Amino acid sequence: MNSYPPVGSFIRSESTVDDLPDEVLEYILSLVAPYKDLQECSLVCKRWHRSVKNVIRHAQKFLHRSIVDFNIRWENITPAEMAPSITKRYSHSACRHDNSMYVFGGCTTTSTTFNDLWRLDLNKRQWVRPLTMGTYPSPKACASIVCYKEALILFGGWSHPSPYPLHQAWRLFSELHVYGIVSNRWACINTPTTPPAMAGHSATIQGELMVVFGGLQKTNVLLGQCGSSNDVWCFNLENQTWNKQTTTDVKPFCRYGQSQISLDDRNVLILGGCGGPNMMFSDVWLLSLTDPIWTWREVPVRNLQWAATYMWCHPACKIGQRVVVFSRRNPVSSRPTFSYHAQNIPLRIRLSTANVRVPPQEDDVPADVVNRRASEGLVEPQPTDRDFNVNGRHGVLGPRPAKQGGTSTSSSSGEESDGEVPDPSSSQPSPEHRPPLPDQGRINQVTCPPKPLTAASSNDLENAGPSGIGMAAFRDPSPVMKPGASENRRRQLESLRRMEERIRRLSRSGSGSSGNSIPPAARSNPTAYGNNVYISPSPSESKSQMTKNVMTMSVLDISHVLTDGCYVEWLCPKFHNASSGGPEEKILYTLIAGKGELIMFGGIQKDATSVKSQAQPLSNAANAVSNSLHFITAPRGII
After folding, report:
1. How far out from the chain centre does Cα 301 lie?
2. Is residue 138 a contact partner of residue 115, using CB atoms and an 8 Å limit?
């Protein structure tokens, strides 16, 4: 006789997580934070350890693929008001050690610099303020910080002057501090030989050396002059000694604000930077650490039309064989990113800056020089534009006339810097205001404080020496009138006047009851009333059409930089998802590589120079600086 289970009962099957397929287990582990939690998961058993290794490898692979495809995912975290959080800042220093990101210093729009150290727990996404001991560094911004073993190496920097007493100078620092992560203590390192005080430089760890390049330095104590440098300094982290490294004569232009990327222990890559007034670079240089003289080599750059813009204020980060830069949108057909005025630039400099993303005009550079540079592969040959338009040449728009102003120099004594130094962060040229080009040399000297060029000085720049050029980095240069520009401008104004008259006539003929005075017939068929009819949208339409200017991603392929061909190539952008969910355009932030992700912190909005005007309230200035975190990862898939 067959026996059946009682009614309402069921057979219970024992199942555990070990019964899950490997694919399901790896997908679950991929949702865990790729730091401490994932490390602890690898200690459960051999199977989990093997699955965690696969998750880490796949995360790196997916991130590399998403960067090449311009298909990334943004995760934005804004600190809560009541939670312990880091202060808003920009021009700070940041690096990652194990499962934490460390942030030091920075400044705000209220002329305040910090000397605090914060740690971001990447596993919990929470800020922690270490109660450090020892000799604290000075409050400063634009310093460099790198990680070596269990220590953080902080060097250089710049600080705002104190408000009282008045007429204090900016300060540059040559301090070198070491923060012990385990001991939680700062230590100041004093050596017999030290580099000059500097800020805006770049640094990387190459074996047992910290290699420092460029930066803004003081050049004349008595006259209060400062300028950028192209020197290379090395700090031996084992015996704690400085030395100035000898390099080849062919070297990059003097600059600051550049990105320095370590390819391996023997090769360093330098990208972009700002050489001073009207000299924003997008070139690439390779530094080979060969004994006894290190070798510089300019790397040909392909597809400059897809290059990142304003690389002096947008840091670059290496992910595998790609370098990622987030900056303002750069259309494929865009012109170079700064104004080019042949009247203000010596010919010898114009002929030697082929990779400054400013194609020389055919009337400024001889044809044989252009052909020679193109044959060397450093620049791509450009077709000559012989068609006149309203501005004289295609894509050339004359800048607004610069206001004239007086010049002044000042000098003051200080422990670290004896001259007044321009702000290398907030006072640097904004994307809309760019400075005149300084002369060439080891250090481009610039008289401080910032001052505009007068009409007489702009005409004498051809014969002026380096010390005679003012810091006009913060205004547009004097305009260069094109042939027929006045007549073209008159025609434009006449066309605008006729358009306004047509709109007024159409407004009087309409009812005007709906708030939009264009007749219904004109709204339904604008071509019947002429192509110059402007139909103003309703408030709801205007609100929906307002879009946030988000940051876009530019990718540089460096896989061929160490080959015999030696070149780098900007990838063709795919805008289908590269900027979706990203933050508003900002500058002077930090970009750090995490485990399977990129970490962006801080910064100031790109139009931050306008918040200093009296027309805007003070609250807008505070809102221009950010303490938000942004994590860039590959899109998450499904099983």
Report:
1. 18
2. yes
